Each structure stands twice: as structure tokens, then as C-alpha cells.
Amino acid sequence: MSIVALMLLSFNVSADESKEAAIRSALSALSSQVPIVAIADAQFPGLYEVTLASGELLYVNEAGSHFIVGEVYKVQSNGKLVNLTEEGKKSGRIEQLAAVDTKDMVIFPAKGETKAHMTVFTDTDCFYCRKLHKEIGQINEQGIEVRYLAFPRAGAGSNTEREMNSIWCADESERAALMTLSKAGQTVPPLTCENSPVMGQYKLGQQMGVTGTPALVLQDGSLVPGYMPAAQLAKMLGVAN
């Protein structure tokens, strides 16, 4: 059952349950395919923010009888809008990436002082992933460390997944060179390993809202879809020379 379909339903919760238990009970009664990751107070009274395993956010009333799917904005005193939903997702992305061991990333370190870093969900054969990688030297020269995570768009069992396994299963010291080789359209030596992190990273990307590649996650948790030139990236990260 889709989340949109769930919006059309209402449900009853016994009055003696706690607020969090009421919310969990109500959502689980609708569908077992709606795993709840966390429940927290929303940034405005009367509603709770529910994070699902899919990365979606729901806003639920304390009785657990109604919920909203969508983005919530706050109007500031100067008239500008703040996307509270995106702000919440930013902190969630930071926490999720902090749980990923850097040994499971393919890292291109900054040249000289590291001024910033960004995490890039990448595919080895997408055009704009390769275009971004051609500028990896320029990005590193700006003091930006690039941390690659795997996101084989074709999914499990695809040629791309197999190629990415060949990179991630290699010795840590060899992965960057193999990544560059693959991004240049050349074949990397086939390699498999029992605990490849490739599909786990793919699922993580989906949970974080990644739908295509490249997908850039900046230090503040912002998700930037698609290619961006090195100079523009440096400016966005506040490290432009």
C-alpha cells in the first residue's frame, strides 16, 4: 500500500496508549510495509515527525488519527520561507553518513589542507558521474575531499553492480585508481567478496532520497542531485579561492 493511499484512511487508537505507542500502533495497523525509524516532536505544536525506513517523513497528530505527507514551511519574520522538512532531513543524513565507515568509501583526498568534504553517491557508467569525476583533480585542489559511495542505478545483479563490487572488494589502496579506470570507460579486473558494501550503500542512498546519480551530500546534510562544476561546488561549500 502506498503512502499516498494511506493518506485517505483514518484509524482509531485506544486512549490509554502513550502518544508514541499510539502512532506506532496506528501506522502498523495500516500496513506492515511502513517501518518506523524514529518519532520526534515536530517544530510546531500539535504534531509529531515520523521518519520511515524509506526516508519519507510523516506529520502525525498526537492521537495517531490523522497524518500529513509533504513538506512543511515556516514563514520567518522577514517573510522568507524555511523548509522545516528539509532541515530535518539534513540532520538525518548527517547521522546516517556518520555511521558509514570511511574504509567502505572510495576517497579522493583534498590536496593540501582539507577545507570541506562531500559524499557522492555514484554509478560507474552514468554520463554525469564521469563528467564530475573528470574534475576530481580541480575539486581536490580546492581543498575538498570527495567520498564516493556506491549507487548502481540498475540494481542488484546488474553489470554495474558487478563492476562496482570489483572496485569496492579491491584493496583499499587500489580503489581510487580502479574508480578512475572505470570512470574512463575501461574494464576493471573482476573481483568479488563476501561482505561487499555496494548494495548496502545503494539502499542507504534510497533511504536518504537519492533517485539518480551523481547525488551529492554536502557537510550540512544538503542533498544536491546531479552534476555541478568544480568552481560552483567550491562556492557552495564556502571554500572558493
TrEMBL record:
Pfam families: DsbC_N, Thioredoxin_2. Its main location: periplasm. The keyword Disulfide bond applies. Keywords: Disulfide bond, Isomerase, Periplasm, Redox-active center, Signal. GO terms for molecular function: isomerase activity. One of its GO terms (cellular component) is periplasmic space. It is found in: Periplasm. Belongs to the thioredoxin family. DsbC subfamily. Required for disulfide bond formation in some periplasmic proteins. Acts by transferring its disulfide bond to other proteins and is reduced in the process. This is Thiol:disulfide interchange protein. It comes from Amphritea japonica ATCC BAA-1530. The gene is dsbC.
